[in-house]
Q: What sequence folds into this?
DNA sequence: CGCACACTTGAGTAATGTCAAAGAGTGTGG
DNA sequence: CCACACTCTTTGACATTACTCAAGTGTGCG
């Protein structure tokens, strides 16, 4: 872990005797939307923040529930999904450190969220947050930016779900995960899969078995090396990229 | 067509001798994001607007091109899509009167757009538009709202592409289209399909043939009545809704 | 009238899903 | 420390859905 970039929150809290907030020691701040706010503005945001912890496989958000909180993932991994009445599930995204959720268009959440690993989440009451949103244009602009990114990512994923083969889908996931994290200290790109095969399948619109078989093929053909079922070395990232792009 | 709601744009333009803009006679204004702006603010927006026409099957936006314009569909239908190098195409959305496009996260468009029918589009230079965005918080808030809706719609569509059967997909499309427009004056809900079977297929992640077969089955089982290949009467909207929801 | 284009329908195939069993990894309690 | 039990993963055999290829059937437009 690198030291967090110097910021004034801890110092100010100490010097003015401000109520300490979970934000004071937030490791995800640098990656989070909150980072656009500085000094006093940031403290106003921090003042309404509340931290919550979840163990793996706990429900964080239930589709349809009143959207009373905005949330920011501080650590751990979360899956966002929608489900059909008979249980078929589509994971629409995995969230990690610094990602936010819970900004639905209406009064209720339109998706569900469940912890994949142990998770720390920073919550903001919606009302208070929206007040700050009006007060701090930079915050609103930052959120707009994030939401725009989310749409582009959604388009990408629709292309995957609607038009890619199983092989291309799995390759896409690996490449995508490799882009996020430099796992381990190795120079070969590598991904740590916090989710199960079934969750990968629900993300890729496949079955667990197809995901497993596809990974096995990648292993047999030397594209990846499984150090363990959830720790994969991407031996030929270039090839995986081409497959993911639908070029092979 | 009902008369557009009374607004001041035409009157003001006349009384103050303001440069006439395409917005003066825009039939889509009531449905568009621009409607949040009133009076002088609206005129500032109108001042940077430029109208463009397209015939059916023309390229409006090319993925990767510099995103110099924001656009608002004034009339007609547009498809938004992404494609793989070998031509496989995923339509991520159909736009109609009052829908906007062209707000990518970065400098270039991340999707392509093509006219399905004859189309009128209102374009705003990006720079100027962003200046207005900063000036008029209500505009930014409205756009945020639209973008949030778009994300929820994208989640819906991911569920469809990843987990629904062909039958459920086609039913979903019909229900969705029926929700948008009250086509004709009939009391039975009815949809007018401006797009081809192939375009429906590219939207639903299927092939043309599967779409056609599925519609035929719906016809044979009395769920719909085809007044022509592109004019469908939804005889049992309730049943279609249940199928679309994955309940049958 | 006939050509072109989109749509429909049919027959066979391929990719992925389903069901089932065996294997691997992990943690717990004896 | 080992053995058992649990869960997740892998692999196999088979079923099914949707795709591919191909031949017809409208329908509108020149």
A:
């Amino acid at each position: 872990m690198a030291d967090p970039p110097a910021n004034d929150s801890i110092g100010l809290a100490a010097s003015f005797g401000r109520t300490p907030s979970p934000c004071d020691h937030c490791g995800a701040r640098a990656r989070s939307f909150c980072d656009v706010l500085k000094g006093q503005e940031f403290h106003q945001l921090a003042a309404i923040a509340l931290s919550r912890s979840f163990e793996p496989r706990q429900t964080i958000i239930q589709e349809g529930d009143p959207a009373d909180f905005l949330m920011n993932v501080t650590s751990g991994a979360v899956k966002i999904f929608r489900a059909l009445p008979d249980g078929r599930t589509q994971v629409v995204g995995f969230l990690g450190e610094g990602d936010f959720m819970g900004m639905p268009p209406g009064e209720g959440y339109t998706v569900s969220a469940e912890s994949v690993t142990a998770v720390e989440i920073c919550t903001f009451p919606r009302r208070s947050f929206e007040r700050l949103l009006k007060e701090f244009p930079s915050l609103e602009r930052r959120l707009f930016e994030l939401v725009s990114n989310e749409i582009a990512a959604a388009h990408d994923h629709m292309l995957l779900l609607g038009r890619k083969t199983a092989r291309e889908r799995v390759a896409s996931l690996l490449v995508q995960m490799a882009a996020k994290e430099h796992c381990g200290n190795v120079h070969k790109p590598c991904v740590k899969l916090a989710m199960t095969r079934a969750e990968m399948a629900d993300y890729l619109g496949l079955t667990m078995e197809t995901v497993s078989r596809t990974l096995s093929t990648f292993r047999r053909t030397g594209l990846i090396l499984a150090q363990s079922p959830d720790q994969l070395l991407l031996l030929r990232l270039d090839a995986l990229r081409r497959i993911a792009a639908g070029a092979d």
